[in-house]
Amino acid sequence: MSKILHRSIHADLPVAVGGRGIELFDAHGKTYIDASGGAAVSCLGHNHPHVLAALHAQLDKLAYAHTGFFTTEIAERLADSLIADSPDGIDYVYLVSGGSEAMEAALKMARQYFVEKGESQRRHIIARRQSYHGNTLGALAAGGNEWRRAQFRPLLIETHHIAPCYAYRGRLAGEGEYQYGERVANELEAKILELGSDEVIAFVAETVVGATAGAVPAVDGYFKRIREICDSYGVLLILDEVMCGMGRTGTLHAYEQEAIVPDLIAIAKGLGGGYQPVGAVLLGRRIYDAFATGSGFFQHGHTYMAHPMAAAAALAVQDVVREHGLLDNVVRMGELLNHRLQERFHNHHSVGDIRGRGLFRGIEIVADRGDKSPFDPARKVNVAIKREAMARGLMVYPMGGTIDGVQGDHILLAPPFIVSAGQIDTIVERLGDAVDAAVARSVA
Ligand code: PMP
């Protein structure tokens, strides 16, 4: 019996002993195709030689130096390369150890920005009901996943939630996509006015929703309207790209496809590809200058921030992504994956929606695709699909959450950027069998 307190105490987890390319191996010699990159983390797959060499080299030089005493060459190089690779509007980087830390830092940065500017009355955070921003208390408060929040509610800071942009379930009959996007974006304006137009700090959203609903992009025009509303009321726009960022959707940042520039961006997972725990907040000059001309520091910090080993991993991963032109493969293989999913599932009685961008794709499982009614949550169909997939040597990421009273079962696919066409075929074939087997058991 494992002595580690895992997320699920009774989970009987296989022991991972190795990995190569897009595969992981367990202690019994069984091979699994990592079609979810863990949780959209392993963008380069496993044991990539360039990343391993970079880690060994950094370890030989310097494993750790506290940021209160030193900066390091490797962390500076990472910051420079992230800024150089990002579109205009990103001028500074705050390096942390993961996604929740990045979101906590972004929320506090946004609050301190207004304190520095003499607008300390601003105190409200608005987010969306379909969202996950991390499990630490601030990030959990911003998130909208009721199941994750419920028992901790007395400990959470007050946040406010508006509708998600979730066309599959939210769009009214006869409503155009654009109208729908505008209608749900306008909920932000109504909420800002309700709370007091000069009392709101920030609006927080995942550019493409990940861990609550499996790769849900917003409809065209939604984020443009959101940006307009934020600008009208001086509200900061924080985009959580912990899951959907760093190339996962085919552009380095997912927001590039929305033709907007956010004020703060949280990134993690694909930044270091799982080789080290690492995350970051990306910010523009405007925020930085408020700190620089104000108190002169950001009142935050962690012992392991800008860790040299984490920086070495992230720099090496991003070098490979850039130098091997892997974003082109994300776009090409993403299209193929979408095509294969459509072929396999577009008439499937239990698949209601197929969606996503790049190598970030989701399917929504329903009991009846006609009226979109979900399975009884007690059946945990998403978990059953994961189990059936693992039995067939395939890792897919299961999600089940309640959004606006509708329980959903979702499966996320986020294979490494190096995936090949043949591997995509195998992934969809095994997933199809796993869905059929899990659904057959659920209705039996
Ligand atoms: N934001 C999003 C969108 C995420 O998907 C996650 C992790 N699933 C987090 C934040 C939290 O990141 P971490 O688990 O690294 O703390």
TrEMBL record:
List the NCBIfam families.
PRK07483.1 (NF005685)
Q: State the InterPro entries in the record.
A: Aminotrans_3, Aminotrans_3_PPA_site, PyrdxlP-dep_Trfase, PyrdxlP-dep_Trfase_major, PyrdxlP-dep_Trfase_small
Query: What cofactor does this chain's UniProt record say it requires?
Result: pyridoxal 5'-phosphate
Entry's family note: Belongs to the class-III pyridoxal-phosphate-dependent aminotransferase family.
UniProt-listed CDD domains: OAT_like
What name appears for this protein in its UniProt entry? Aspartate aminotransferase family protein
Q: Which UniProt keywords apply?
A: Aminotransferase, Pyridoxal phosphate, Transferase
